[in-house]
Structure formats: structure tokens, C-alpha cells
Amino acid sequence: LDHECALADRQKEAAIYRSLLAADPAHNKAKEGLAVSQLRTAQLQLETGSPRAAMTTARKGLELIRSLQARDPSNRLWQEIGVKSANATAEASMMAGDWSGAREANALALDSARKLVGVDRTVPEWRTDCLIPARWMEIAISVADGRQSAARNLIATFRQDFTWNDVSKSADERFAWVMVDTLDGISRRAAGNEGGARASFQRAALYLPKDDNLMDARLLGAARYLQRTVKVSGLPASAPAMAGRVQYNVGALLSGPGG
Questions:
Q1: N or C: which terminal CB in the chain sees fewer CB atoms within 10 Å?
Q2: Nearest alpha-carbon partner for 198 in 151, 146, 233
Q3: By the 8 A CB rule, do 214 and 242 touch?
Q4: Partner residues linked to 214 by β-bridges
Q5: Coil, helix or strand for 238?
Q6: DSSP letter string over 196-225?
């Protein structure tokens, strides 16, 4: 993925939707398209080391999709886009250091994702790509706030509610499992349990793809964090095309309000 070209494509796409909305402010499909374009742009901005820009973009997309949801609360596609936009806003806010904004967006994502999954539990993507990301960010916020007991309970509940297998996992789901065990390791280390922390960090690495040439920006960021910060070895290498391009800062998600 050429992130610069991808960002340029998203900007062109957004410009088309804005021109449609200039001609017809009530054009719901254009609003939907612009919200999705902003979501994708925010994700690219996160991957290339621009969390503040990503936060601004994601918030604009979230505001837009929520205006559509107010018109038709029964529209499941808009609900799904809304959860993903709230998740992107929470993620970008954490990385940008706006933990108050992250808490607010995460609370919205959790509530919306639970309602969406409750409507139809046979749609796996609503669990894997909407609810599970919101749940790992809830844990991250608890750890960042120093609420270690709450974080440990949330981690235990996560493992009860979701089951890992290594078949056909989306990047969102893989990253969530990596983050949960990384956060578990950080929580255990804070409690003085270095052996437990090391086991958690090693387990986090098991959720990464087994092959080298890792392409996903967030998984690559997680692999780098585990390798450089907590000294986990034997991790997959990045694809040559990705080397130096991805600046997804996992450490910023783990530093907390006090840095």
C-alpha cells in the first residue's frame, strides 16, 4: 500500500462527495460516502504518524454519520459505520493524548456496538470489527487511567466473551487480541509480576501472522513495540515495501494521560 497515493485518492473521493452535497445538502448517499471516506482517511493518517489530523478527521466523519443515524435509527449500515467511526475517533484520541475525548468516543462505540450485535448475532463482522476493537480500547483506557483492578476484570471478561482461533482472522480482530495481552503484560508489570508480564507479552506475539512480510500497519506497529520495548523475539518481519513507511505508534496507546 502506497499511503501517500491512498490519502490522495481519499481526498479526491471526499471532494466528489462534497460537491454532490453542495448541490443537494440532503443527499444521504453522498453523506454516507463522505463519512466512509473520512473514516478511511483517519485510518491512513494514524498509520502514517498523524494522530491529531486523524482525530479531527474521524470526529468529522462520526458527526456526519450520527446525523444520518438520527434520520433513520434502523439503518444497520449506518450503525456499523458509526461504531467504526467512534472506534477510530477513540483510537486517534488516545494516540494524540486526548484521553477525555477517547473515553467519550469509546463509551459511544461500546454502547452502539453492543446494540448492533444484539440485533443479529449471526453477523460475525459486527463482533470482530466493531465490538472487539471497542473492548480492547476500553481496557487500554482503564490501564492508562491507572485502574488496574478494573483492567484485570475487563481482560478476564474479554477472554470469557471471545474465543481465539487462528483461522480467517481480520486485521482488526488480530490487533485487538495482541493489544489485550500486551495490556495484560503492562498491568502485571505495574503490579510487580514480571514473570506474568513476560508470559503475556509472549502470548501477544502468538496472535501475529506466522509469515514474514507483514503488511498491516497496526500489526507491524505492534510487532515493533513487542520487539523493541519488551524484547520479544521471533516476530514476523515487515515487508520491504512497508519498511520506513508505517509510523503507527503503539506506545502512544499505552502511555496514558501522564505520558
A1: C
A2: 233
A3: yes
A4: 238
A5: strand
A6: HHHHHHHHHHTTS-SSSSB--HHHHHHHHH
* Lookup: cell for 67: 446525523
- Burial (CB < 10 A; 0-12, 13-18, 19+), residue 197, is buried
Cell of 168: 480467517
Closest by CA position to 105, among listed 153, 143, 162, 55: 55
* pLDDT tens figures, 50-89: 999 999 999 999 999 999 999 999 999 999 999 999 999 9
Report CA-CA distances (Å) from 66 to 56, 95, 109.
15, 23, 12
Quick one: DSSP state of residue 1?
-
113 φψ region: left (φ > 0), alpha (ψ -120 to 50), beta (else): alpha
| pLDDT < 50: residue spans in the chain | 239-243
Residues 6+ apart with CB under 8 A from 196: 185, 188
Torsion angle in degrees (nearest 10) through CA of 87, 89, 94, 96: 150
Cα–Cα dist 144/136, whole Å: 12
d(CA 224, CA 231): 9
0.70 exceeded by pTM: yes
DSSP tag of 236: P
Give phi and psi for 188, each to the nearest 5: -65, -40
Distance of CA 222 to the CA centre of its chain: 12
